[in-house]
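Z., the sequence and structure:
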Amino acid sequence: MTPKEIADVFIEEVRAWYATKRNPRGIINTNAISVGIVMIDHMATSFPLSASTYITARQGQVKDLGGRTIREILARHGERRPFRSEAGRTSRGSVPLAHEFANLLNRSEAAGSYLSADVSDQGLVRDRLQGWLVHLLRDQYFNLQRIEAELDHRKPVKFAINTLLQAARERGGTTAGAVAQHLVGAKLSLRFPDQAISNESYTTADQQTDRVGDFRIGDTAIHVTMSPGWNLISNKCTANLRAGLRSLVLVPEDRTFGARQVVDTADIGGRVAVISIEDFVGTNVEEMADFAEDAIRDGLRDLLNRYNERVQAVESDPSLQIAIPDNL
């Protein structure tokens, strides 16, 4: 059997096992997937798998079942979104799951073929099997994790926007930048319903290609960034001015002072406006609601719904969507 054929036999048997680990909503416990992912690594040490290979002698836990190891394995397979720090290490159910998974692999119809394969081919088998498990974790966890934050419509909306940006920052990576861009896009599409507001994936917007900014409204090029730097302000904003466009830079509130310093250093102070994302989005939601509390609540909900629609249309990562709080 080829490495692919061996791996595919393992996968079909593992798939059937995971079908028994679903909750009433059809979602697999991520602990079960985490256990499987690290057990594949233990196959490189010894096979058939014995308890001494994958269970620690002192604590009686599954070896290497921790957030750091899981993140390293996920990164090998191209998944770099943040995962739970403990990753099931302290769960009482991890050891029984590991025993079940080991027995499944040891008794698999593919076990003999895996044993007789050379070291290189065994590595290919493990990589394919582990990649399938990472895909399963992506489907059962990452793609279901919407951004959550406590939002209070009775406070100025700028605080809700700040809370969302903070929640996105905690995710790490480029999440905050994507959230900022799509919040601004959602606000613009609500504010200018008769205009076609561009909607690009964050990676496309970040590359900028030949566009004058993330958005263009009338004669104004709008740039949305979490980290205002020299390249954006000196090069792109200056290019906007040379083209006869107004230039507006939107940054998090805690970055406005630094952004304005860069604008002054670039000698374009007074010609480029720097506004916080929180004020730009929040104040406009309140204005469209005529500053009435109930209407502000509805407006904030409309903003998040429009945001999710725009994210769903262009982003491959569903976890960038925002969970709508019950109080909205």
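The radius of gyration is 25 Å. The longest strand covers residues 246-251.

Let me know what you think.
H.
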